[in-house]
Specification:
The protein contains twelve helices and 14 strands. The protein folds into three domains: 172 residues, 3-Layer(aba) Sandwich (Rossmann fold), CATH 3.40.50.300; 73 residues, Methane Monooxygenase Hydroxylase, Chain G, domain 1 (Up-down Bundle); 88 residues. A six-stranded antiparallel beta sheet has the order 2-1-4-5-6-7. A five-stranded mixed beta sheet has the order 11-12-3-13-14, with helices on both faces. Strands 8-9-10 form a three-stranded antiparallel beta sheet. The chain is α+β, with helices and mostly antiparallel strands and 431 residues long. Pfam families: AAA_23 (PF13476). It comes from [Clostridium] ammoniilyticum. This is AAA family ATPase.
Length: 431
């Protein structure tokens, strides 16, 4: 059974003169009043009484009072906590009458329940870590977060490369109407060499014609000059004439081939190949970009799977509130991160988490509850009652929603009687 506060009796603490309150066991006990009347002093007194000297106000004694503070808190487990005297000494008495100390109180009092702003002012990551430690999945979630971060960084790198490759591919020139592969000039060179060889052979045959013409002329002159050798020379002449005739016949049928087209093709082939290379480079860049895009998509799927495992882990955990979760190492409630939550939702989340920290502590102190409108206040009270949780809160208001109203250091209905009583029978340390 969680411990709650049954009664408060406070004197001369900060702005409090004399206040006695019996808080509601489940739900809200709202301490109302105008500013600077002593509302927050009540919460500070409870925190000091139950939480120890670490929570003692810096100016604990009420200004103008010569009487030291007196604090008495009666708890639902029968323990009575008192601080009184010049040194505000602690006295803890259990139901059997035995005395104890702060160690006993610390066993069932949650420090953050006494100082909820200490939790609310933690960083987003610190608040998330508190919740993770409560539900016992911190180590597993850390593994998932590490894996997700690794995959995210890898995907980020791959994505950048993919973008660079795609941009590079897009900037590459592409030429229409050129072959898909690099052209080899060797075939054209072979054709050119064959034609040049043929033309050389033709030239040698032409040279033979000239040679035979010279020979005929020489022999003709020799016949005229050497009649005596006519017969012999005539035979030679006849033969030479015959050879000449045959050579002329061959020469007449010869036709030289032009290499201009081949030379033009050779001149153009490098330009064609340049365009082909450009097209091949573009295709390669596009393929690389596609490859990195596939890697990026695969990494995205892996990240989604890790996130699903994280969500499953959190959804199956014993969370203090429905719709409470952790995303990117931050608390989320109803899909909103801390800085996007309403003030009332922040209080509800904080209260639930602090309750979960120490289930033996059945109460929480809430300051400045004026941020909730009446409708939200009613809903919050219903939730507290449902959870069996006691909340003692302050609110700048004197409306009907307030359980008690503090005015000038007193509960309002006790103001006049306290003034009159103090004139005749006020004694230090008594109500």
């Amino acid at each position: 059974m969680s411990v709650k506060i049954n009664a408060l009796e406070l004197e001369n603490v900060k702005r409090i003169k004399a206040v006695k309150i019996d808080p509601t066991q489940n739900g809200l006990t709202i301490i109302g009043g105008d500013n600077n009347q002593g509302k927050t002093s009540v919460l500070d007194s409870i925190a000091w009484a139950l939480g120890g000297d670490r929570n003692k106000p810096s100016n604990a004694v009420r200004e103008g009072s010569t009487i030291p503070p007196l604090l008495k808190v009666t708890l639902s487990n029968g323990i009575i906590v008192e601080r009184k005297g010049k040194n505000s000494s602690l006295k803890v008495t259990d139901p059997s009458g035995k005395k104890a100390g702060q160690t006993l109180l610390d066993s069932f009092i949650e420090q953050l329940a006494l100082n909820l702003p200490a939790f609310m002012n933690k960083s987003n990551k610190e608040k998330a870590n508190v919740l993770l430690n409560i539900i016992g999945v911190g180590d597993q979630l850390a593994v998932f977060n590490h894996k997700e971060n690794e995959l995210y960084q890898e995907r980020l790198t791959v994505g950048r490369i993919a973008d660079q490759k795609a941009k590079f591919a897009k900037e590459q020139l592409f030429y229409e109407g050129v072959p898909a592969d690099i052209i080899s000039p060797q075939e054209l060179i072979n054709q050119q060499q064959a034609i040049l060889a043929k033309n050389g052979e033709n030239q040698r045959k032409r040279e033979k014609v000239t040679q035979y013409e010279y020979q005929v002329k020489t022999l003709t002159d020799e016949v005229a000059r050497l009649e005596q050798m006519l017969q012999k020379k005539n035979e030679e002449l006849n033969k030479a004439t015959y050879d000449l005739s045959m050579s002329k016949t061959d020469a007449l049928d010869l036709q030289d081939q032009s290499t201009d087209e081949l030379e033009k093709n050779l001149a153009e082939i490098e330009e064609v190949n340049r365009k082909v290379r450009a097209n091949l480079d573009k295709e390669k860049a596009e393929e690389e970009a596609k490859g990195y895009k596939v890697q990026y998509d695969n990494l995205s799927l892996q990240i989604d799977e890790v996130r699903k495992q994280k969500y499953d882990l959190l959804n199956n955990a014993d969370l203090p509130l429905p719709e409470l979760s952790i995303d990117d190492n931050e608390l989320t409630y109803k899909g909103k991160k801390w800085d996007s939550m309403s003030g009332s939702d922040q209080l509800r989340v904080s209260t639930a988490i602090v309750r979960k920290l120490n289930p033996d502590c059945g109460f929480v102190l809430l300051d400045k509850l004026e941020q909730m409108d009446l409708k939200t206040l009613t809903e919050f009270n219903a939730w507290l009652e449902q959870e069996g949780l006691q909340a003692i809160a302050t609110r700048v208001s004197t409306g009907d929603e307030c359980s008690v109203i503090i005015e000038d250091g007193y509960v309002k209905e006790d103001v006049q009687s306290a003034v009159e009583s103090s004139k005749t029978q006020w004694k230090a340390g008594e109500f």
